[in-house]
Amino acid sequence: MARVVLVTGVSRYLGGRFARLLAADPAVERVIGVDVIPPPHDIGAADFVRADIRNPVIARIIDHAGVEVVVHMSVIATPLGAGGRVSMKEINVIGTMQLLAACQKSPSLRRLVVKSTAAVYGASPRDPAMFTEDMLGKREPRSGWGKDSIEVEGYVRGFVRRRPDVDVVTLRLANIVGPGIRTAMTDYFALPVVPTPLGFDGRLQFVHEDDGLEALRLAAVGRAEGTINVAGDGVLMLSQAARLAGRPTLPVPPQLGGLARQLLRRQGLVDLSGEQMRYLSYGRGLDTTRMRTELGFEPRFTTREAFLDFVRGRRLQGPLNAETVQGARDALGSLVGGGRRP
User: Fold this and answer.
1) Residue whose C-alpha is closest to residue 207's, from 240, 174, 236
2) What's the confidence (pLDDT) of residue 46?
3) 284 vs 41, 118, 140, 187, 209, CA distance in Å?
4) Residues 6 or more apart from 33 whose CB is under 8 A from it?
5) 296, part of any domain
6) Cβ contact 306:223 at 8 Å
7) What gap in Å lies between CA 224 and CA 228, rounded to an integer?
8) Which one, of 40, 104, 35, 32, lies nearest residue 76 by Cα?
């Protein structure tokens, strides 16, 4: 039984939902949720403590409560949500370093769960069809969330060497979709017109938000150890996903992808990183054997079913206003045309 569990990042959507889910688990006596601001949503029976994991005060919270399990969900994926790229990296990397330092000193800690991402594999035309957990990508992420997550996982491996008595689980989740979550990827597929990399049609793999949370719960209360991929079965091609969302596409030459991303960011529509555009170009597949054999988890949703639930939740299948579509096409089209002029 995991008597006392500390969850970081509870003011964000997934962290708050996870704290509520874990607090309802009879295998858990107490859940402590920490974040820099109070959660705007219900976290159930979990206790909220206002704290910044970048501050050494987190060590006192862990010691005072006798925390046995820490679930780290504070690695942020979007710069806009963190106040910029510099702030995002500080939260992700420095925050993780401080949290692990606190965990290292805690005599009560016996389990650490880290929410990571499949983005650590990067995306490349030379990648294998399916990544197992011991594989490396041919082109690792050089910026953004993926790069931060590689650094985070490096610090976690260092923690494993220093505290071999603590069971550590790192879950590499595929892109999370669902009716409630908002990410750069879900915002991308909600655009009136979806800009796609010209000449490419990436293989996309998703995990439903409910399945991602259940995998984290099993990691917190179970006995699995090591790094585990988490994803729904099957893949969707980028073009298939756009059709399922009822979105027209506009192919953009790869050399103009950066300009397209800047336009979308300035308009406040979506903040896609260069690495995410590479993912849309080349795709990525995850081998989930360890998810089943080590974690004992079977997703309820396939990749396709998860994406369709996101489409229903965001009501994307209805007819789009013709003027909205044309305006989006004109804006992106002028960018493409303008980019071709010397």
Assistant:
1) 174
2) 97
3) 33, 9, 13, 19, 19
4) 6, 7, 10, 15, 16, 19, 39, 43, 46, 47, 48, 49
5) no
6) no
7) 9
8) 35
Q: How far apart are CA 118 and CA 110, in angstroms?
A: 26
Please state which of the ranges 142-146, 165-169, 208-212, 312-316 shows the lowest mean pLDDT: 142-146
Q: Specify the amino acid at residue 2.
A: A
- Give the rounded percent of residues in the chain with a pLDDT score beyond 70: 87
Burial class (CB in 10 A: 0-12, 13-18, 19+), 229: buried
Range of the domain at 89: 2-176+206-231
CATH number, domain of 219, equals 3.40.50.720
Give the number of domains in the chain: 1
162 part of a folded domain: yes
Instruction: Give residue 158's region: left, alpha or beta (phi > 0; psi -120 to 50).
Output: alpha
Alpha helices by DSSP H, listed for the chain, are 13-23, 57-65, 79-82, 85-89, 95-105, 144-162, 184-189, 209-221, 238-244, 257-266, 274-282, 289-293, 303-313, 322-340
CA distances from 216 to 83, 103, 291, 321 (A): 27, 19, 11, 40
- Helix pair 209-221, 13-23: axis angle to 10 deg: 50
Q: What is the pLDDT of residues 63-83, one digit of tens each?
A: 999 999 999 998 876 655 545
User: Does residue 98 sit within a domain?
Assistant: yes
Measured CA to CA, the distance from residue 3 to residue 53 in angstroms comes to 21
| 32-48 as b/e: b if 16+ CB within 10 A | bbbbeeebeeebeebeb
Does a structural domain hold residue 150? yes
Q: What gap in Å lies between CA 274 and CA 277, rounded to an integer?
A: 5
Q: What is the pLDDT of residues 190-201, one digit of tens each?
A: 998 899 999 999
Q: Of the candidates 193, 206, 204, 183, which has an alpha carbon nearest to the alpha carbon of residue 281?
A: 204
**pLDDT band at residue 86, thresholds of 50, 70 and 90?**
low
